[in-house]
Amino acid sequence: WWRHVEPAAKDPILGVTEAFLADSHPDKVNVGVGAYRDDDGKPVVLECVREAERRITGNMNMEYLPMGGSVSMIHETLKLAYGEDSDLIKDKRIAAVQALSGTGACRLFADFQKRFSPDPQICIPVPTWSNHHNIWRDARVPQKTFHYYHPDSRGLDFSAMMDDIKNAPNGSFFLLHACAHNPTGVDPTEEQWKEISQQFKVKGHFPFFDMAYQGFASGDPERDAKSIRIFLEDGHLIGCAQSYAKNMGLYGQRIGCLSVVCEDEKQAVAVKSQLQQLARPMYSNPPVHGALIVSTILGDQNLKQLWLEEVKGMANRIIGMRTALRDNLENLGSPLSWEHITKQIGMFCYSGMTPEQVDLLTKQYHIYMTRNGRISMAGVTTGNVGYLANAIHQVTK
Ligand code: LMR
Q: Which residue ranges does the record assign to the Aminotransferase class I/classII large domain (predicted)?
């Protein structure tokens, strides 16, 4: 039956983790996958999560969740994206379902798009998270790219991006990173978001926000939702993928949410029912444990406060490592500019290193990262930053 099946290409991000795990060198460093580590390089379970687990233990059953997932988790999650006092929530205009983290939310939306608006393409920024391409490809939605990153300035190519938005066929779908763009760490300013939103209005484009890093851009989830709020103020109907992998450290729990803003409650009921119908033949209903952790934390003022402090703590450790990496490179006498390490935000630094330089880092120094030159700053520690800086200096000088 399966003689014609060739091995699949390795995933450009998760394949790096596999290679790292297979390496037995004592000095190996993993700055590939975007997964937060403490300053000893260890995975972190947040205190608010530990406390939520204590409260849940003994108090839960293992029943199915509804097809759309946990109602209380969804309610709390929508408040994070749309605002505590959002009229859209009050007016029940948002169709929302629990999703298998950000990936699952994007995939569900892509399938929904294909089923109910099959003609328009999805416009995806260059570069983007590699899995975005897989998700919309497997949903059989035609893809087009739009300019985003400017390699020379290592910042946003705003004018080219605006041109692409203007030139795309009216009513195109656009994938936007709500904050802490992956892989570049470059976000539009508030003023630029306003211009983008205005242009979307003129063209009738549909904005789909992937918000995988809420809290990691500024340390404050509320501030990181600014892009979305700007679009909402302008009256856009948006879609949004949310994930608790990074900001609650719930990577393996696969917990997130997909929401679609509708014209009224009736439409939201219809859209939600269709999202559930898409989920049913794929995984029937989502897992219960992560949803309980999230609703326990966000439903309790004290635990929510603790969470906000812990998110800030993670974001601040990363900011500290950005400064340390840049200082180390400059102290080594690197003739190159490393200003972008501290200018970029979120979990990643888009270093500008070439795939060949990355290969050398891996071969000679056992440093693992994606070949696009992205460094996961969350894997940089006081203990490895000197080693990392020296290796980068050696391969780039
Ligand atoms: C990443 O970009 O490293 C993360 O989003 C993890 C993943 O699933 O790719």
A: 27-392
